[in-house]
Amino acid sequence: MRVFRCLLLTCLLLLTACATEMRPGATAEAPKRVAFQKAGLSPENGGLLISADALQAGDILLSASDGITSAGIRMFTLAPVSHAALYIGDGQVAEAVGEGVRLRSIPDVLDEEAVVVAFRREGLTPEQTAAMRAFAEARVGQRYDYVGVLLQAPFSVERRLCELPLVPSLVRDACLRGVAAIQLGTPDNERFFCSQFVLEAFRVAGAPLLDAHPRWLSPADILHMREEDVSSLRVEQPLVYLGHLKFLETVQDPRVAARE
């Protein structure tokens, strides 16, 4: 029984943890249109490759890798991303991973991830982006929220009852908040997983993306906060898709993988 429990906990971590995996990679050589999860991006631009010069402090980076952990998360959440991070300016990215909160350079992110997509909450002030950077730098080394990640597994299953087709948005929002309050609670943010860390940075800066507790949301939820998408929870201001910083066709659309 103890062995079974250990295996179960390991599987839950693989399916729900925020995934970044150390792997060599190469950035795209020339701009091109991107087919990766095209339906999941704004149809107007169809996916654009951009350079890091297009980023501003406060931008959100969603990513995926070719590793098993990333694939498991994307299959479980039916989303093309498995990790969320925050660009804080000066070529630095802040993120919460297994070893805790850390800073990475943009080149390191592009080397280690297979797909990196940038989104922006418009209207941030210099004071707010400075507050986000201060928040991130002050928490470097802070421990990872493994408890929150484990609780995300049953929540990710039960929440789908609230997200059935034809459920009105207000009913969906209320249902999801009720399930989240029961399953996840609202603890103090002393430890973080990736999406929780990003959302908390916006909250403490006075520019929350939504009024739900950051522990309730995954990288997939942040993806669905973009314009012309349907978020499970009411969003204060939709995110604007900036473009892909990196795209490798080796990362498969999880919906295609599921069908196969």
From TrEMBL:
Q: Which UniProt keywords apply?
A: Signal
What residue stretch is flagged as signal peptide? Answer: 1-19
- Answer whether the UniProt record assigns the keyword Signal to this protein: yes
Q: Is Manganese among the key words of this record? A: no
Sorted alphabetically, which InterPro entries does this protein's record hold?
Answer: Papain-like_cys_pep_sf
Q: What is this protein called?
A: Lipoprotein
Organism per entry: Chitiniphilus shinanonensis
Question: Top-down, what is the taxonomic lineage of the species of origin?
Answer: Bacteria, Pseudomonadati, Pseudomonadota, Betaproteobacteria, Neisseriales
